[in-house]
Write a structure and sequence with these properties.
Blueprint lengths: L1 E7 L3 E3 L5 E3 L2 E8 L2 H11 L12 E4 L24 H16 L3 E9 L2 E7 L3 E9 L2 E8 L6 E7 L1
Length: 158
């Protein structure tokens, strides 16, 4: 059974700064043996697409279920003016390495507040990660984006 993504070149989206762009729309994801079977399964599982105005549908087989996530306007290594001091830069580098060693990927430092550092990263879903610093030990907490509470992942020496 193959995993398929159905998209349509017919659509528009509004960006956060309220610009309207023509783009592709993701219509759904299905499991099927072939493109033809995926098309039939899409019509069956996403019945609201029938009569929705979308006419042209493209199917792509998803080989790797882990998406490559990046952020427009964000860099994986922060510009020096966004890091308060060299100690903070060192801590961000150490924490990034610890997170990578623990299975996180596409790690992005987001911000710091008091003794906590916040990152976004990917394991099996995009997650927000809070790292509390207490001298030479850090406590790592993660939560799936949209969940309310952080879960303690573990303590690590830096």
């Amino acid at each position: 059974m193959n995993h398929w993504m159905a998209i349509s070149p017919e659509g528009t989206t509004t960006s956060p700064n309220e610009m309207i762009y023509d783009n592709f729309q993701v219509l759904g994801f299905v499991y099927a043996e072939s493109e033809a079977a995926a098309f039939e399964k899409l019509k069956e599982e996403y019945h609201y697409l029938n009569g929705s105005g979308f006419d042209e549908v493209w199917f792509y087989q998803i080989i790797n279920r882990k998406p490559y996530i990046n952020y427009l306007g964000k860099e994986f290594s922060l510009p020096e003016n966004e890091i308060e001091d060299i100690t903070e830069q060192e801590m961000v580098n150490k924490v990034t390495n610890i997170l990578a060693d623990n299975g996180y990927s596409d790690i992005v430092f987001d911000y710091r507040s008091d003794d906590s550092y916040y990152f976004e990263a990917y394991t099996d879903a995009i997650q927000e990660i809070r790292v509390d610093s207490d001298g030479e030990t850090i406590k790592v907490y993660d939560r799936y984006i949209g969940e309310k509470h952080f879960v303690h992942l573990g303590n690590f020496n830096v």
